[in-house]
């Protein structure tokens, strides 16, 4: 009886905490996005007297010669290219790290882990990209996003790879499969659960990234969705209704994606914990 009460208390506290941390701020964004400029300047949770959502959305979309649409295009391309490169490279790296053991393996594992610990350096990265002719280019930003997501994705693939029997490798090699044939024909199709997890989590991270496009992909034509927030915020006057409408518009696509595929994220994250 006491155990049931304790469990109920913990669950109720968790729900209350999630409401405070997530739903109240989200409600704050919605309620101020549907207000006019005067009411939104009060920055409170009060429901507006009249709803101006569609007018605000039209203004946001048309601002600065439809910059938001161009930003959605840029963010989508960067996200898609980054995810494709991450899946191919990280899946192969995870396969090699899990299947092959040698003197260099501990050092390779350490280098992968260090990528999660060591923070990225802005100025040296700009210097390297500029030297390679990739600064202010989409290719350079994709390379940065891939480098930042590489350690996390490799660890996920490596953990999931441990659940795939080695007998599959041996049988494929005996049937005449090459190294690439073994990986792409036999192993990669079995990685769908963890691949789905990586696609969703990294898409949310890359699409909503603010810092990297700001530093490595500057320019009005290169704007991404998060950088469009600058359109309605300045040192002297901030159009809060338009700012919150912009936040709502760029948040909803990834929020819907996350809610729909939440179950797949959990499955992919826990699949590699069966054995290592």
TrEMBL record:
Keywords: Cell membrane, Membrane, Transmembrane, Transmembrane helix, Transport. SUPFAM superfamilies: MetI-like. The chain crosses the membrane at residues 12-34, 72-95, 107-129, 141-161, 182-207, 240-261. InterPro entries: MetI-like, MetI-like_sf. Pfam families: BPD_transp_1. It is a multi-pass membrane protein. Signal peptide: none annotated. Residues 72-261 form the ABC transmembrane type-1 domain. Coiled coil: none annotated. It is found in: Cell membrane. Belongs to the binding-protein-dependent transport system permease family. This is Carbohydrate ABC transporter permease. The lineage of its organism: Bacteria, Bacillati, Bacillota, Bacilli, Bacillales.
